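Hi R.,

Here's the chain you asked about this morning:
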Amino acid sequence: MDVEFHSNPNLEEDQIEVKVISARQTTNVNNLLSYIKNFDKKVDSLLPVKTEDRILTIKIEEIIKVEVEKTELSFYTTNAVIKTNGRLYQILEKLNNDFVQVSKHGIINLNYLESLEVGFTGNMIAKLAFKQKTDVSRRYLPELEKKLGL
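And the predicted structure, written out as tokens:
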């Protein structure tokens, strides 16, 4: 990988322009683009969650999956299931690149993905660690495959 710096006096003082040039768009290119896009984002290791009677902090690395039913969010972690209210897309924005949406009602942590299997309806089923499962709809399968480098 070649890395070069070029000065451009036409840019503002705090403006940076990045170009990634490659023969084709590979997994490495996509990973680099993702890294660059998220470069200045603050990465939290804790996710605050407001429950009925208190505010909990969940270690992001311990989240296996997040599912929503109507407005009730369920966080499945390595040692508990935490329920709260909210929207799935808002949670996805707070999570890091280890997470991918697999259906309109579910997000998984790729670090806990053990396998993908074909389900009865033609959808895929993601088998996760700690005996967790979730449906992967056809609409979200290409993004999952892209994240897995397939």
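Residues 31 and 147 are 9 Å apart (CA to CA).

Let me know if you need anything else.
M.
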